[in-house]
Amino acid sequence: MDPELKKIPLPDLQELHARLMCFHEQYADHLFGHLAFPARSMARMFYLGTLKFHFNIHERNHYGNDAWAMPCTAGQTTIVIDHDGHFRSCELRSKLGRVQDFDFDLTAALHSPQMQAEVAAIPGAKCWCTHSCWIHSSSKFSPSVLLFHIPWAYLKHRWQRLPNTSLAELEQFRVQDAPNMGSDPPH
Ligand code: SF4
Questions:
Q1: CB distance 153 to 147 below 8 Å
Q2: Using CA atoms, how far apart are residues 160 and 140, in angstroms rounded to an integer?
Q3: Which residue among 14, 61, 95, 130 is least enclosed by CB atoms within 10 Å?
């Protein structure tokens, strides 16, 4: 509610992302440690490279309006439905209609004339943003992002000097295994 909270200076945002990458390094080890080489290295590279790719877009577009490396597929691969049935291509763009008017058929809403006009309008709108869900749903349909930009982002992450993070700081975020839900009844 307080717009002042959005005013993160770019150096602070970059520093925050660098610190988060320390945690994601740990998560990657936990998530993919069971895989054999080279699958483990590939999974790690894509996981960390994707995060770095997102963070780079966030840094460029938090105050700017910089084109993504891929077209935004809002309205093609994704749709937003508001609480009252209005639908949009993304949360940041206008309402286009109501799913009630399409008998709650999402395919019909996606292929509606207003959504088709919206999809045609998005490239010219240059509304480049920091919406990670849409960055992700767009990037995974882009061969150049998958084959070049994400591996390149990973390499840049590898070359970056990460801030010193103490083990104690990392430990408090350790992912705990789910508790054993055995046959003992709860007391
Ligand atoms: S670039 Fe951002 S604001 Fe524009 S359509 Fe895509 S998700 Fe929405």
A1: no
A2: 25
A3: 95
Query: Is the CB of residue 28 below 6 angstroms from any atom belonging to ligand 1?
Result: no
- What does the pLDDT look like over 143-185, one tens digit per residue? 999 999 999 999 999 988 777 777 787 777 776 666 655 545 4
Q: Cβ(74)–Cβ(109) under 8 Å? A: no
Distance in Å, CA 7 to ligand 1 centroid: 21
- Tell me which amino acid residue 12 is: D
CA–centroid distance, 119 to ligand 1, in Å, is 10
Check: CB of residue 10 under 8 Å from CB of residue 59: yes
- For residues 109 and 137, give the distance between their C-alpha atoms in angstroms, rounded to a whole number: 19
Distance 143 CA to ligand 1 centre (A): 20
By the 10 Å C-beta count (0-12 exposed, 13-18 middle, 19+ buried), 53 is classed as buried
Indicate if ligand 1 lies below 6 Å from the C-beta of 51.
Answer: no
